[in-house]
Amino acid sequence: MSTAFPTLSLAQASEFARLGLANVRREYPHLLQHQLNGAADVRAPRELHPAFYGSYDWHSCVHQYCILARLARLFPDLPEKAEIDRALAENLTPANLIAEAAYLKEPGRGFFERPYGWAWLLKLAEELTRYQPALAANLAPLVAVVRSGLLAYLPSLTHAVRHGVHNNTAFAVKLAIDYTRVVDDQELKLMCTSRMAFWFGRDANYSAEWEPSGEDFLSPALTEAEVMAAVLPAENFSRWLSRFLPNLHTGDPEKIFTPVRVSNPADPKIAHLIGLNLNRAWCWRRIASALPESDPRHERARRAAVRHLDAAMPLLSAEDFNRAHWLASFAVYAMTE
Predict the structure, then answer these.
(1) 208 CB neighbour count, 10 Å cutoff
(2) Could you identify which of 59, 108, 237, 239 might form a hypothetical disulfide with 117, taking C-beta atoms 3.0 to 4.6 angstroms apart as the criterion?
(3) Which CATH number belongs to the domain containing residue 305 in this structure?
């Protein structure tokens, strides 16, 4: 099998862009995470979240905007580019984002979307900084709330969250680090990198028997390895990886090299495993890029990335909203980042 990683084509980018545009404007069905502080808080999603009311839930809407900005930047000839620009300008207004920031400041909402949605919000700020800096400036009030929250949350978190769903610490911090490097936020970057070293620096002999759980969409092992690749110098990362997954060069543990079978893609929770295969492809690709081509782990990681992407892509669906509202974002990042 070729180890050449598939390239996102203009046709695929166009398909994902159309899907993203439909998602961010679709208010219902909606899964609302919302603390009611009084009767006046009983409101519709668009009233509560004027910027991020679509795509089933708040964090999915945020990462759909991420891919819209990313696709418009990476594909200047994208047929949907003008419509993307309109959608960004119409929804990511100063007034809407001030309202989103105010929501997070209300009593009892300091943990809203922490840390997964926060991390995707910083990823959106990164994408907009690269694509449309004026819109990134509109995000500033909301970014300030999330940034302050992370600076308080990370040092108070005594143990990293290592499971394969939303609260996974390594995945969130990796997205935050990406943001800090684009905007040169040294304070948040230092906090993120120091906490990664604190939590994961001494990890060794990871057992793949611990994953996956039946509804994972993140790989605990590979998200940790990916964030350590971002934190450590190349030689130090190579040594750390040798301790963490000591037999990686032989293709062991086999479980994390082998795509996960998805028994029922139409089941919303079982379909998380499609996301897991995409996340593994994303992680394996970036782990490979952190290793020299002369390292046998580089080739194994590249092959694993291709296998996982090949297993996931046929299961994406534009018709099934349970899959359509989020999986495209994982596919776009797996294929472009």
Answers:
(1) 17
(2) 59
(3) 1.50.10
Would you say residue 26 lies in a domain? Answer: yes
Give the tokens for residue 323.
Answer: 């899959």
Q: What is the DSSP string of 262-279?
A: -S-TTSTTTTHHHHHHHH
Answer yes or no: is 3 within a domain.
Answer: no
Q: Report d(CA 298, CA 290) in Å as an integer.
A: 8
Contacts (Cβ under 8 Å, ≥6 apart) of 274: 217, 262, 265, 312, 315, 316, 323, 327
pLDDT, one tens digit per residue, over 23-44 is 999 999 999 999 999 999 999 9
Domain holding 18, by residue range, is 10-34+45-336
**Cα separation of 5 and 334, whole Å?**
10
Structural domain includes residue 2:
no
Task: Provide the token pair at 29.
Answer: 């069905």
Distances (CA, A) of 262 to 12, 270, 309: 23, 7, 13
List helix spans (H) across 158-210.
Answer: 169-183, 186-200
For residue 265, being part of any structural domain is answered with: yes
What pLDDT was estimated at residue 318?
95
How many domains does the chain contain in total? 1
Burial class (CB in 10 A: 0-12, 13-18, 19+), 163: middle
pTM passes above 0.90: yes
Q: How far apart are CA 211 and CA 207, in angstroms?
A: 8
Q: How far apart are the first and last CA of the chain?
A: 22
Averaged over successive runs of 10 residues, the pLDDT of the chain (337 residues) comes to 78 98 98 94 97 98 98 98 98 98 95 98 98 97 98 97 97 98 98 98 90 96 98 97 97 96 97 98 97 97 97 97 97 96
Q: In this structure, are residues 23 and 60 in contact, taking their beta carbons and an 8 Å threshold?
A: yes
Omega of the bond prior to 253 within 30 degrees of 0, cis? yes
